Amino acid sequence: MAQGDHLYNTYRPPAQEFVRGEGAYLYTENGDKYLDFIAGISVNCLGHNHPAPKKALTEQADKVWHLSGMYQLTGAKKLAKKYCDALPFAEKVFFTNSGAEAIECAMKTARKFHYDNGQPERFDIITFQGAFHGRTFATINAGGNPKYLKGFGPALPGFIHLPFGDHDALKEAISDTTAAILVEPVQGEGGLRPLPAVCLRGLRELCDEKGILLIYDEVQCGAGRTGKLFAHQWAEGAEPDIMAVAKGVGGGFPMGACIATEEAAAGMVPGTHGSTYGGNPLAMAVGNAVWDEISKPEFLAQVTRVSNFLMQQFEGLKDEFPTVVDELRGKGLLCGMKLKKPAIDVRAMMLERKMLGGSAGDNVLRLAPSLIITEDHVREAIAVLRECFEEAKGLDDFEAP
Ligand SMILES: *Cc1c(COP(=O)(O)O)cnc(C)c1O
After folding, report:
1. Which structural domains are found in the chain, ordered by start?
2. Among 190, 227, 242, 335, which residue's CB has the most CB atoms within a 10 Å radius?
3. Is the model's pLDDT at 142 over the cut of 70?
4. Residue 298 CB burial class (10 angstroms; 0-12, 13-18, ≥19)
């Protein structure tokens, strides 16, 4: 154990310590500048030290920090109205502190809906291979990744895991104990796999036909990251009944939300659910400020422009390094590539060149920069990646896991 290190050993951070951020860059104590192309894993959507949320946070800090849902939460009401005005399905919102809690609320909402409709036996939640929904007991069971379940006791009942994109398996799996289908419109951890619009629409139709609820996990792919406020909005006619958001909607302040139709949320009455910090005035001040920025049409148009440019550049890298790049992945600024060389090594090479990136399942190099990046940041990133791929070319051949 490193001397003086009393944190759980659940992460393996590099030695660099970032003490300051500005826009798309992070700085160490001695002033070294790093290009941040992971943004706290899809969180700092407005970059670092953005004036709008900073002003909202400091102004709120002068007023009141915490009240709890026992009292009127004006910031929460305002933000819930903004979400509901922007999303045709949305009528009710429950605020949380994290993505996992938003998913927990979504799953509780779905089960309660069926319970109140006289079908308490409908409690199974169907999810798909490669899914990631968080790290609480219920959300690791929802995700079904054996790596995250191992060592934590018996699997919880009520979760059904299906292969990704297998329509027949899905139709077969739905029974009179099914409560809901839970899916990420763009899989994050699983390897940046977008679900095509036709599949999302297919899920919607299937849920309607079977009388079950459709839950989207837009914790990672929402908040403007794909160039729409939420990734499912690329597919017409594929609205969910319930949606969980977090990460980007707080822009770096811990917050999330479960957003639902009035009908789905009807059973969530006093006593059924709660959260001490949910809707906290500081979080809501930031959440409102972040929303006001990311919901501007010109903001989203710039995300689309810059992500198209980025994808073009990625195409170039793929052609240039056929022994390194296997295929391009993702949507908008939740993007990357499946590599033929170990993604984890390429990430380390990027760090040496002062660029931050991430990795995901399926040996994918994951990039999720802040949404304020420009074409110049993309050029800088591509130059670093080109150097790394040049180096990676020489690595021993490698069997992707
Ligand atoms: C990060 C993430 C979560 C969990 O969010 P936390 O804030 O870490 O609890 C859930 N779903 C998806 C898709 C995520 O990317």
Report:
1. 55-294 (3.40.640.10), 298-341+351-364+388-401 (no CATH)
2. 242
3. yes
4. exposed
